[in-house]
Amino acid sequence: MSRDDRFPDLMRAFFYEWLVEQRNASIHTVRSYRDTWRLLLRFVAQRAGKKVAMITLADLAASEVAVSPSRRT
């Protein structure tokens, strides 16, 4: 992971600064968001042929995440 990749910092800020500190989200809400992000990152990593830890913000482009009806399994 390069120093220029801000994705881990953005994720940390989303969970700790925005959800917890600013929105005062319950632990259940935080866990729900966490679990959803885990599933999404695993999916993106599999499609990109990378490990989850190597995912960058660029890997999360809508065109990379959207699944057309013909690609569904």
Automatic annotation (TrEMBL):
InterPro entries: CB (IPR044068), Integrase_recombinase_N (IPR010998), Integrase_SAM-like_N (IPR004107). Keywords: DNA integration, DNA-binding. It comes from the Bacteria. The keyword DNA-binding applies. One of its GO terms (biological process) is DNA integration. GO terms for molecular function: DNA binding. Pfam families: Phage_int_SAM_1. PROSITE patterns: CB (PS51900). Residues 5-73 form the Core-binding (CB) domain. This is Site-specific recombinase XerD. It comes from Mesorhizobium sangaii.
